[in-house]
Amino acid sequence: MTRLKLALLMLVALTASTALWHRYKPLPAGLNVQGETHAVHGLKLLVDDTWESGEGESSKRLSRQHIFDEFFRLIGQAEKLIVVDMFLFNDFQGTANESDRALSSELTDALLARRASHPTMPIVVITDPINTLYGGFHSKHLTRLKKANITVVTTPLPALRDSNPSWSGLWRVCCQWLGNNPDKGWLPNPMGPGQVSLRSYLTLLNFKANHRKTLVVDEGEHWTGLVTSANAHDGSSAHSNIGLRFQGNAVKDLLASELAVAELTATRLPTLPTLPTQPTDPAADARLQLLTEGAIRDALLATLNHSQTGDQVDVSVFYLSHRPLMEALLAAQQRGVQLRVLLDPNKDAFGREKNGIPNRQVGSELHNAGIPVRWCNTQGEQCHTKMLLRRSANSAELILGSANYTRRNLDNLNLESSVRLIAAPDHAIMQQASDTFERRWENRYDEKHSTDYAVYADDSVWKYWLYRGMEFTGWSSF
């Protein structure tokens, strides 16, 4: 019995020490990037909207999409290089809708068409292992790309810090070494058709991801980058999203950040062209900074903490739960900053109904503090934008990209990519970002994008503390 107790004690100690190490271990090189602030040109704000038109039985769900149209255009004209990083790249769906696009097939076809016309051009696709259910499912899209000699990099998530250490410590000791087998599935696929193994479920509980959505290509004499909140995922194709296309030296930073992820694996990359450094344009009317992982959090907090009385700060985000960010919002409101927060009601998830956590609890906290809150009027889709816009009399800042405002997305746990654009408040992009928020907030042009706070108000105390516990422990999908 003494030996058994000693063995159990050693197992507990091993599990606990493993959990602690992988929660706080050093990040791999090239992550948590706060890039230089570069002069930027070739800017285009890309917005996807879905809204309700009409009332009652005559109401219709309508959409307007620009992000992937530009994504595919850029791929279709590339001559020297294509690098894609895409979190969700699959056709898994819950309840399908006739307005959904087959984005995963469209992206696959666009890449294969460019490979056919440019057999030697380097094409690299970086993605998350969720698209194969962590090795438990064959991805037809990734298989087609590999057969066409397109380099596919599946991000090795164990190299990242653990967001759910109370499970991941045990998983690393007991299960990580088991691997997976896509031909041995016997449990239902939690994301779509087919079957997966128990090992897929055990890996899923780590709740971590390469959550980036980016593109780098050559475009004529320039190099172009695109950072967005949108996924090439059929079930996400009706979501409201936002993205930014840009040119200049910030594209070099974006490419370097993606190569840092690719180099975490043993995948052999093709020889890539070197992006030249462009001379700084002193007349540039906008500047842009790449942000990844925890640097996104730092930029959001800095923007809020430096906002002053009379500034307008508009936030539109799918998930908001990060406590330091919440405290910064509340403090800004007390300083006289004019705040508005547009939130997804967290009720829809690919045909499944959610319970409103965490946004309804956070919305209650903001509303009770006097901050105006509205809900996206979702009808099965999600309000998937991640955007903060600050405007003062003389300056404006826009932060957008892949990162939700949660501990998992902002505290160096997931891989994330966002950008921070700085320009005058009357700059065309800032005006368009402002118009986008106003259209959704005020339901302009007879488009019902949002609804009153009272519609999804939830002051439940136990749900509030449930959200706080889920955020703190990592036992959550947000």
Q: What does it look like?
A:
The protein is of the alpha+beta class. The protein has two domains: 34-262, Endonuclease Chain A (Endonuclease, Chain A), CATH 3.30.870; 286-473, Endonuclease Chain A (Endonuclease, Chain A, 2-Layer Sandwich). It contains 13 helices and 23 strands. A nine-stranded mixed sheet has the order 1-14-22-21-20-15-16-19-23, with helices on both faces. The protein has an eight-stranded mixed sheet with strand order 3-2-13-11-10-4-6-7, with helices on both faces. β6 (123-127), α4 and β7 (151-154) form a beta-alpha-beta unit.
Number of helices, where a helix is a run of at least 4 consecutive DSSP H or I residues: 13
Overall mean pLDDT stands at 95
Number of domains: 2
Alpha-carbon distance between the two ends: 43 Å
CATH class of the largest domain: Alpha Beta
CA radius of gyration is 22 Å
Largest sheet: 9 strands, mixed
Helix content: 25-40%
Lateral strand order in the biggest sheet: 1-14-22-21-20-15-16-19-23
- Content-based structural category: alpha+beta
Beta-strand portion reads 15-25%
What descriptive keywords fit this protein?
478 residues; alpha+beta; Endonuclease, Chain A; 2 domains; nine-stranded mixed β-sheet; globular
